[in-house]
Specification:
Helix content: 10-25%
Strand content: 25-35%
Radius of gyration: 38 Å
Structural class: mainly beta
Strand order of the largest sheet: 3-2-5-6-7
Shape: elongated
Number of helices: 1
């Protein structure tokens, strides 16, 4: 009976060790402040991960990887800029680093071309159909007589 208890206790402790992870000791990633600018200023910069602001502005971003920023302004064409956030974990000799590319995120908005006013299409007169050929008389042919 003693062996059964020892084996059960050892099995449970090993099962607990296999699910143990060092991730529990990692802290949540620190937000990195990303600067957004546009030409002309005053555009709405909306990120694909949620936050938005009016340029020039900055937002705290808590993500790793890629996201997009779409700049919109009335009477201007929207511009989408891809952004990459890379976090390099630190070790005992160096601190953790976070890089944002591009930094600052800048967009140059182009004026929207006004829709062209369509010219009124001139109604073309339908060409008069060619007069129908007179029915051929019996025995007459436009070809010479083969005799």
């Amino acid at each position: 009976m003693r062996r059964v208890l020892v084996l059960t206790a050892a099995g449970l402790s090993l099962a607990g060790c296999s699910s143990f992870s060092m991730d529990a000791f990692k802290s949540a990633p620190e937000p990195v402040t990303v600067q957004f600018e546009s030409t002309p200023p005053g555009a709405e910069a909306k990120t694909s991960i949620g936050p938005a602001c009016t340029t020039p502005c900055s937002l705290p971003i808590v993500t790793e990887g890629n996201f997009e920023v779409t700049f919109t302004l009335p009477k201007f064409q929207p511009v989408t800029v891809p952004v990459s956030v890379t976090r390099v974990p630190g070790d005992f000799t160096s601190p953790a680093r976070t890089t944002v590319d591009p930094s600052p995120v800048v967009a140059e908005l182009q004026p929207a071309t006004p829709p062209r006013k369509g010219r009124k299409a001139a109604k073309k007169r339908a060409a008069a159909p060619a007069p129908a050929a007179a029915p051929a008389e019996a025995g007459t042919s436009p070809f010479p007589n083969p005799r």
